[in-house]
Amino acid sequence: MSGGAATALIFRNERKATVRVYWVDHSGELQNYGDVSPGNSRRQGTYLGHPWVVTTEDDTGLVCFLPTAAEATAVVR
């Protein structure tokens, strides 16, 4: 999807294991944006219409997020 207005997502990991954050690029490919360790959060700048996927460390899918116009927290449980 093409990008819209700038915004941000805060990825908060409430799991007992590290999670991996990916941006889904315009070709549908996952682009690794790093890991979030248990109990921690990370703020990620993004754009409206840019989908994000969170997986386990072995890349098992957990959840997808789409940003909102206001900065939002994406809680991973």
From TrEMBL:
InterPro entries: VHL_beta_dom, VHL_beta_dom_sf, VHL_sf
Domain of life: Bacteria
TM annotation in the entry: none
Domain von Hippel-Lindau disease tumour suppressor beta: 6-55
Pfam families recorded: VHL
Protein name: von Hippel-Lindau disease tumour suppressor beta domain-containing protein
Organism: Salinispora arenicola
